[in-house]
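Entry 14. Structure prediction run on the chain below.
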Amino acid sequence: MIKDRYSDFEQDYLGRTQNAINVNINEELESLKKKRELILEERQYLGDYNYELKDDEIYNLMKVEHVDTNAYVYSLHRLDKLGKLMKEPYFARFDFAEIDEEDEDEDDLPEPQDADNYYLGITTLRDPDSGYILVYDWRTPIASLYYESNPGPAAYTAPSGDIKGLLFGKRRYTFNNGKLLRFCDVDMPSDDEFLNDALASHADSHMKTIINTIQTQQYKIMRDYIDGVSILQGCAGSGKSSIALHKIAYIMYHFRNKLENKKIMIVSPNGIFSDYISTVLPDLGEENVDSVLPEDMVNEILKIHEGYTYFSREQAIEAGLSSIPYKATMEFRNAVVDYIKYLSKTIFSPEDLIIEQADKEITVGENELRDLFYSVYADISLMDRTAKVAEHVCDKYRIRANEQRQQIFYELQYMMKSLSMTVLYKMMYTDDVFADKYGYNLSEDMITKENSWEDACALALMTLNMCNTDELSKDVFYIIADEAQDLIPVFIDVLKTFYQGSNYLFVGDKNQMVFNGTGNFVEDIKTIVLKRPLRVYTLDTNYRSTIEISDYSVRYLTDNSTVTSVRHGADVIEETNLTGDVCREAVIEHIRKMVDNGFTSVTLLCNTLKEAQRIRNMLRLPMAIENKITFKALPVYLAKGLEYDCVITYNVSDDLMYTACTRAMHQLVVLKDCSL
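Output returned:
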């Protein structure tokens, strides 16, 4: 129950806001009904008179129907946002009075009663009668006053220029299903009990939005320039993934004109994380952002190589395959790049071409063929160039017969080192001329029986540089690559080459590598992605985990990184050498205590998916526990970027322990040298 001298005003404003939401919802529902009827009529007309209409009339009708359908979809999205506003109309307010330049005399400065009230939410809401803005979108320029300014003189940048004034106060609100539970005045977003309450809350069914607890540094990263390359190095729990998603929402709000016919794309570490993303963006007021796994991107490039298969990083872990660490290094990426350059000068070894004609024999010299291949048609992709050279020769010497033209094409093909990209790739390891010229220590031993993820990335990079890939979709305006510490250099080059005109935000933590890598993803990106400007941000505060969990987890770091946390909690529990039923009962008892403490999200982390499935089946949690919590058993690599109320680690290898431990928000149990 709210008891405060401002309560009446706040309750009145809430009532006015919710009434406006209801009116907007009803208007949108009526609009949806009319739009649906119109679209159905258009489709009916097109179906009834399809054979009588001219092509241009059909085209125009389909174009109109497409526009009306988009308007209908927009209304659906608007209705969804209004529904979210009904549950939480706004989360913050600030009071601000503008100052005209001629009124900057101290005697003319505005008083608190002169200030306007600005309420912030996930989208803008207007009074349907007066047009007055009741709620401002958190991404509007004026909202920066709340996130970045202290009470007192303040300014923000509007489209018309800088606006100066006085900021008199800021307020934070908590709602539960549309009911105002409480509010309090704050100075900065981090200076109040609301942040600690938010951090102490339980892990939700999906990653949380942080628009109501954004810290000043986080907000500046979200609003910073989008051109060029941005790299965010953040410790576990620093909010870097959330910042990335909020930056997407910010870009979509402010740069819609630049996004016309272009996409924003997230390169996500795994399918589970992609599902989480799909639930967060609508809560920020945006949808329709593509998410792609690195494997999916590589598969799209390699689909022209029928029958090529490889072990993904996860499959390699599960199969116990040992990859070659060298292939995850910058030197290997450089070797592939240099090999592509080498092939661009050596892949075609011309010989004199003899063309038999009825009355004479024509010889096309090797120098002419060399000039055609390496100079005249240098703008044609390497693997498609012989076709162009064959066409040129046939046209020049007036070869008309299809059979003879085909024979010339085949003879030119024989002058290539190979027509198979996979064969060409494997030749890199055995080409002594290449190795000697560029100084690489490659050997046939590096050609593994099972194609690895690193091999697939190398082949994809060769394909992008040597084959015609124009049919692949590349029109992406902004790319966010999460868990960038696990992106090997050769894949970073694939990403850069595939989406050459894009801007980038790479998000990662050098201490959370799950797969092979160089351990220095920031420098790798700087070296490979040469687009400028380039900015690097660093976050070193863990808002997710308690101080106890954070302090325990840093024991497993080897670089003396400093990580801070902001709240205390339960001590970390560590147990060793538990076996069989004793181990099983211990795990169940830990989970039971977690349930008794009110936690609802518990995850057991181990090294492999096979092991996780075995443990999940063996535990056989009592129904009294199963019904009260969401319990998962996962390998560490599938938990990247995610968070849970409580985590139990089971024989997790030391190099993965930092990542595993920092998935826990409130309680951590570590089991070592145990056997279930």
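Residues 7-48 form the longest helix (42 residues).
Filed with the rest of this week's runs.
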